[in-house]
Amino acid sequence: MRNPGRNPSVHVANVIGDVLHDIPPDTARDDALDRINASTLKDRANLPRRFASIHDRRTTAHHECGHVMAAFVGGAAQIEVRIRDDATGICIARTVEDPEAGITYSLAGAFAEVKFNPPRIHSYTSGPCADLLISRMRIDQLNAGRTWPQLTYRTAAKTAMRFVDTHWHAIQDLALALDDAGELDDMAIRIFATCRS
Ligand SMILES: [Zn+2]
Question: The domain that contains 176 carries what CATH number?
């Protein structure tokens, strides 16, 4: 691991940037789909989910609201979010058009989660989750479409980290509301996303 430096957020951004860098590009897409399908299947079949602790649930609420806030700032027209009893969650947004805002959207969950609950960084270093696999695909897609400037994995991670730091109050408000209600629709999201920004 590299020198942590003075700012813990920058250290987290470098760690996530390096995880993105180490993802094998050829299998990123299939691996991401596998992870997403496994979770949607559970929803469809209504399979029982383990009941999670309050702290796990709050951690997920912050993760999902990192995505929500990035979707909101990225101009998504329709945003929905929910968390489940087993502290898994989902954010659906139609659609973040700008490619770089889309990358921040897929990375903001991890940064909000780790800012709220720092030991959770280990869940990202122990193997890439769907969010990081998707982010890697989006960064590679962006870079394939232009020769300069190339977006590095560390720069993409730092941008998402700064986004979460900048919008932290609104993310916390959204997470509190989500933890309380279990789900937020587009209108509720717009209210909580704007009341302190
Ligand atoms: Zn996520």
Answer: 1.20.58
Q: Count CB atoms within 10 A of the CB of residue 195.
A: 11
- Record the pTM: 0.91
What are 35-65's pLDDT values in tens digits? Answer: 888 877 777 777 767 778 999 999 999 999 9
The domain tally of the chain equals 1
- What would the DSSP string read from start to end of 117-141? SGGGHHHHHSS--HHHHHHHHHHHH
Cis amide linkage into residue 95, ω under 30° from 0:
yes
Which residue spans within 24-180 are E strands per DSSP? 78-83, 89-94
Whose structure tokens read 């921040």?
104
Separation of 132 CA from ligand 1 center, angstroms?
Answer: 9
- Gap from CA of 146 to ligand 1 centroid (Å): 27
